[in-house]
Amino acid sequence: MKGSLLSMATATVSPRYQVLPGPEGLLPPSACAMGVELPQDGEGLVEGVIVSEDKAFKAAARALLTRRNPTLFPGPLVVWGWNKHTEEKASMVLEIAAEIPGVKIIPMPDYRPIYPKIDPEAVINPCHPNLTIWHNKIEACIFVGVHCHFANVTLKMVRAGTNCYTIALCAEAGHEDAMASVPRCGTEKLHKMVEALRQVKKEGLTPWALTADGKRELAAEREQKKKQREAIAASAPQFAHELVAGLDENEE
With helix as H, strand as E and coil as C, how does 165-225 read? Predict the structure, then answer.
C-alpha cells in the first residue's frame, strides 16, 4: 500500500514550469505562483530558468532574429524624453532595432484604454495587447520602458492568447512571465543586447526577414500598405472639400 501511494504521488508531481510561447489558455497561471524566481543582477531568465545574463541576451537575440515579424514595444519610460537618462535609453533602443532586419517599432505611449477603435499598427494597448500581436503576426517582441505593473499583466495576456516570444528588458527586477528577461537594464545592459544580436549574426544565423518566406511576406505587406495609402489619397480631396465648406448647423 505504501509503495502504491508513493508511486501515485510521484506520478502527479508536475515537472518544472516552463514559460513558453502560447497560446496557453484564457487564464494562464502566474509564473511566480508556479515557482519561477526572479534573477539577481548579472543573471537573466530564459523560459522560467535562471541563467547567466549573457545567455539570456543570446536567447533573446536568437528569438528576435529567427521568429516572424520581430517588434519592439517601447513604453512611456523611453518614449517620453522626461530626463537625460531616458533619452540615452531611447537611443539604445533604436540601436537594438537597427540590428534586427525587418523590425517594427510599435510604442505603448499611454496606458489608458483606447476606445472605440484601436489602431494596432500605430500603438500597442496594454488592455488589448493580443490584438496588436495578432494583427501584425508578431512572433517575437521586446518590452522596454514599460512600467512593471502594466508589463506583468500585459505579458500574461500575450502568453495566454498568442504564440509570441516575449522579452522583457526591465529597469527593475525583471519579469517571470516573459520568455526571456534581464533585470536592471540601463544603457550599459541595453548595449549588451546590441552586442548579442551582432554576435549571433556573426555565428551565421540567417534573420527571418532575409529568408525566402520573410522576404515574400514583407514584400506583400509593403504592397498592401501602398494600396491602402493610395485609397486614402483618392478619397482625401472630397473629404477636404467638406472641411473647407464647413457644416451648416441648421441643415437637416
Answer: EEEEECCCCCCCCCCEEECCCCHHHHHHHHHHHHHHHHCCCCCHHHCHHHHHHHHHHHHHH
